[in-house]
Amino acid sequence: SQQGEEDPQALSIQEGENATMNCSYKTSINNLQWYRQNSGRGLVHLILIRSNEREKHSGRLRVTLDTSKKSSSLLITASRAADTASYFCATNMDTGRRALTFGSGTRLQVQP
Amino acid sequence: DAGVIQSPRHEVTEMGQEVTLRCKPISGHNSLFWYRQTMMRGLELLIYFNNNVPIDDSGMPEDRFSAKMPNASFSTLKIQPSEPRDSAVYFCASSFTGYSPLHFGNGTRLTVT
Lengths: 112, 113
What we know:
heterodimer, A: six-stranded mixed sheet, five-stranded antiparallel sheet, B: globular
């Protein structure tokens, strides 16, 4: 079963706009990670946020984590056509299985 | 660093045949993961190794699937006999530890007819 569920499933925006993707998960986590996947390629790690952190930035990316609501969001600011990809959240559980469980992903389309 | 290397890139085979997928992780990484991606089920963890030892194989669909890691630089995922429902993209990923970010290969697209 999938630990994380992304919302929305698909998102289409214009270049220059901001894109926000949300992720909800079910169990206590050690960390939450966001990945990007271009068509036909493997996933690429974007950012990791630990359970004791609330916000993290990396370039045009901003990730928030609310452990009380078991949710996270990924904000991409000033989007570019090259940001078109699928974005996945993934969680490392606090105990037990030490392997990432991935959500279903958000397909982002940035129109030039 | 060449990253995680998977072979073959594409595999087309007939039902009942044996399929072997190969993976070379990044040197120095202690954890290796096999995932399967389909439209219906998304990304599913099949098995992961830590220091060449299988830690969790609860995601392996059934006895037709087996995975080995004979040394730190090589792993295989074998399907015998293959079935059409095994058609998917199979990814190998490695990481420094079980909690570290994963580095993915570009996957093997398997089609079983």
